[in-house]
Amino acid sequence: MIKRSLLAVAIATLSIQSVQAAPFLPMDARGLAMGSTGVASAQRAHAPAYNPSLLSQASEDDDFALLFPQIGVNLADEGELIDEAELISDEIFPAFENAIEGSGLSSGLDANLDTLTTRISQLETAIGTGDAAQIATANTNLKSALGDVDDDLVVTQSSISDLTKSLDNISGSPLSARLGVGGALAIPSKKFAAAISFSGTANVSARVNFTDSDLGLLNSYVPAAQGYIDAADDVSTGIDDATADNTITPTEALNLQSAVDNLQTYEYTSPNGTSIFSNGALTDDASDANLTSTAEVVAVAIVDLGVSLSREFDFSGEKVAIGLTPKLQKITTYHYADEVDGFDEVDEDDLEDSKEDYSKVNLDIGASYRFGSEGNWVAGLVGKNLLGGEFDYADVLVTPKDSNGNPDPLQPAYTIDGGSVKLNPQFRAGLSYQSSWVNVAVDLDLTENDPIAFENPTQYAAIGAEFDLFSTLQLRAGYRTNMSASNSDMVSVGFGLSPFGVHLDIAAMANPSDPEKEAGVALETGFYF
């Protein structure tokens, strides 16, 4: 039957048709712990990632800051694909295999169908003798085999129903991951501030697509076997009628022989064209079915190298900081595809062959305004990737494979079209209250950001707080919700240690209703002077 390993491999495969803008989600530990806020609350070396104008909102005592390294990872399983796939791999598919191939408790549908075929051949031989007693005995053995297969069909139907239901559940369910690394060197100032920053993000979006033809194939086994059983049962009933008086006429024997001949030529073909029964027996193609579902892999990596410049300006007595970050971007796309059947692992050479590299100049611009009687309030606004950009990923050639994972010479290769990555502008506003011991921040995406691929679009609203104890220990917590999707709330916590200007920050976040739905962690070290 269909290999169990294929389903295990399929849960880790990625499929994509068009890639859009990534979410506004810097992977720094401080901001992540505070609900992913920062447009009005980021400090010094964190400013380039959120709002470059904040470089000019630092206090007069602040000197340069070095942040390196930043490491963060986020995994979102919106449709709980991983849990469902593990259930398929560990329980549902083994039950399906046992129903077809047998286990310690039963022979299985495949073996009992072979026994039924043998009993039909024995019946044909008995009919040829014309002996009513031999025919009746052979018919009794046939009925016993029919009963065994009937029992198998109940178990097989249940296991197939569970399997197709689970396949429907995971088909199209998005699985996304985001890995980020970065660092920055910042020199804050009211008059002229500057920073050099770099960041790298790898964005992955995943789903498994099982075709209707594959689901139709799975749903064909029981109807095919049931049709065979019904035909055999009709022959058995005819024998009972013919031998009721313990005799059989030549005409009756001829009619029974014709019925058995028809049974031995029984045919059944699934909707996808796979022959399930041929010449009254389960075919090799049915025993080792060829799945037509494909798995695609698309990865998008974006590396930014930016120089942030900021200055505070006086507008009619109101001081507003304006900052900009021109940056050089390198965007790399990968595209890989293979059929699920015969798929063992990603061919690194094929993946490398699909790589497309692009270079792009882009621009972030931000503004911030400090207000209040003591200047504790800060309002911020930022636009990122204002020059946009669109980048293609290559077509990919899919080579069908046989059950051993080797190219199938009987199946022609075909192409899955590539697509494009759009790096769209993003806009976010923020408000924060800052004092010597507390920092409270609120951020709001002003536009909806399209997903990388199949996951939900994002438009985040976030709130976070930081409590600074003796300028040595920082405790942080936050909350973030996606206004474009339901049940996508995130809570976050973290802490920082900053003795003598050396900073170590750790953060974690998770969906409060189901941590397996989405979770992330981040770690960074830095030096503030």
Describe the structure in your own words.
The chain is of the alpha+beta class and 529 residues long. It has 2 domains: 4-80 and 173-210 and 293-528, Outer membrane protein transport protein (OMPP1/FadL/TodX) (Porin); 86-167 and 214-287, no CATH class. It is 28% helix and 37% strand. The chain has 11 helices and 21 strands. The chain has helices at 4-10, 29-33, 47-50, 81-101, 109-129, 132-170, 212-218, 221-242, 250-263, 284-287, 348-353; strands at 65-76, 175-187, 193-206, 268-269, 275-278, 281-282, 294-315, 318-339, 356-371, 377-384, 390-393, 396-398, 414-416, 419-422, 426-434, 438-445, 460-469, 473-482, 490-497, 502-510, 518-528. A hairpin with a 3-residue loop joins β15 and β16 (438-445). The longest helix is centred in the first third of the chain and has 39 residues, at 132-170. It is elongated. The chain starts with a helix and ends with a strand. Residues 1-21 form the signal peptide. It comes from Thalassolituus pacificus. InterPro entries: Put_conjugal_transfer. This is Conjugal transfer protein TraF.
Task: Please give a quick description of this structure.
The chain has about 525 residues and is α+β, with helices and mostly antiparallel strands. The protein folds into 2 domains: about 350 residues, Porin; about 160 residues, no CATH class.
